[in-house]
Amino acid sequence: MKSCFVFGTRPEVIKTAPVYLYFKNLGEEVILIATAQHREMMDMMIKVFNIKPDYDLDVMTQNQSLNMIVSRVMERIEPILMKERPDIVFVQGDTTTALSACLAAFHLSIPVAHIEAGLRSGDLYDPFPEELNRRLIDVSCRYLFAPTKRAKENLLREGLDENRIFIVGNTVIDALELIRKKINMVSLRKELIDSDYYILMTLHRRENIGEKMRSILRATADFAQKNDIRVVFPVHKNPNVRQIVDEEVGKNPNFILIEPVDYLHFLSLLDGAKFVVTDSGGVQEEAPSFNKFVVVARQTTERPELIEAGLGILAGTSKETVYEAINEANRKNLNSIENPFGDGKSSERIYKIIRGDIA
Ligand code: UDP
User: Fold this and answer.
1) CB of 280 closer than 6 angstroms to any ligand 1 atom
2) Fold for domain 185-330?
3) How confident is the model over 101-136, as pLDDT tens digits?
4) Given this model, what pLDDT does residue 305 score?
5) Ligand 1 within 6 A of 260 CB?
6) Residues 5-31: pLDDT tens digits?
């Protein structure tokens, strides 16, 4: 059995690496294709997991449009898939890389497995373009690895064949458990900050860029000032995000703005935070493993499990609602909780399902 794994962005590396490593460590034939949709942040994560792509499509260009990424990935991945002829191609999540690789494999009649299938916000434009990517990927896959029961229900509601759907948990929990064993959280955190009392913040969603992001930042800045708490914020590399952050809080003494950090350091920051304000998907899934409450700074969510379990608030994106949600988060004290997104055994489940099918 020859398995091909494709990724191009930071979260895809984090969520694909544990599955790839599980297959590889069992002696399976594996091929790793990196598209480098986000060059720097992808490379940073590859180092953390100590993996080496067999192919690097190097698609990233300055001011790349979504259509440019699709066409470059499809054009460059096709000869590799034709030469390697894998038995299966794994894509993860909802990126333009995942959609393009899935479509290229589909055109070559190679079965595709989707890691993290079935997430839906219900709004085609939020997150954009990820909601469309997910839907297109899911209709074309042979294996739909849904992280939760809710994700499976979403797929069934769209009429997808139950025999293709498997609830396996989210592989991000495998990733964080892999890493957590190896690191000393406190000393890593000290390399970055000297504060023990802080909110951890990340923002990057395309649909938040503009007034929404400004409102989220203003609400957080107000709260931080009134409560004399720091905000540690690794700022995404997207120049549009950087410009807004710089204009809104660049000179704010309560904000500790840092470059994106590798996964080890990020988990150490999560471990020490009072709570989290984020529009990231992965961070929502990781926070419960560190008993951290999450303010989800978005209009919609494809991860309602977090809110339903009382581990986060869907805060919207206006200054008032975000401020209120932060206030509530500050009063929460989560004790040891079960993570609704996974138990760290997703890779093993995926392996057994695929191995049982493909000789
Ligand atoms: N992350 C990281 N370093 C950072 C910020 C985030 O390693 O400076 C990790 C985080 O732990 C999570 C992932 O990146 O697993 C989330 O990536 P992002 O928010 O870019 O994408 P999303 O999850 O929203 O697709």
Assistant:
1) yes
2) Rossmann fold (3.40.50)
3) 999 999 999 999 999 999 999 999 999 999 999 999
4) 97
5) yes
6) 999 999 999 999 999 999 999 999 999
pLDDT at position 105 is: 98
Which residue, chain included where needed, has tokens 């479509």? 103
Q: Which residues are catalytic?
A: 94, 116, 130, 204, 206, 236
Give ranges for CATH 3.40.50.2000 in the chain: 2-169+344-357, 185-330
Ligand 1 binding pocket mutation candidate from 133, 283, 294 (most atoms within 8 A of CB) = 283
Instruction: Tell me which amino acid residue 21 is.
Output: L
What is the mean predicted confidence (pLDDT) over 195-209? 95
Mean pLDDT computed over 149-164: 98
Q: Which residue in this structure is represented by tokens 């609400």?
A: 219
Residue 127 near ligand 1, beta carbon < 6 Å: no
Contact in structure between 9 and 90 (CB atoms under 8 Å): no
Q: What is the mean pLDDT of the chain?
A: 96
Counting every residue, how long is the chain? 359
Whether pTM > 0.90 for this model: the answer is: yes
Structure tokens at 319: 């200054």
User: How far is ligand 1, taken at its centre, from the CA of residue 261, in Å?
Assistant: 9
What CATH number has the domain spanning 2-169+344-357?
A: 3.40.50.2000
Give the DSSP per-residue string, 2-19: EEEEEE-SHHHHHHHHHH
C-alpha 137 – ligand 1 centre gap (Å): 21
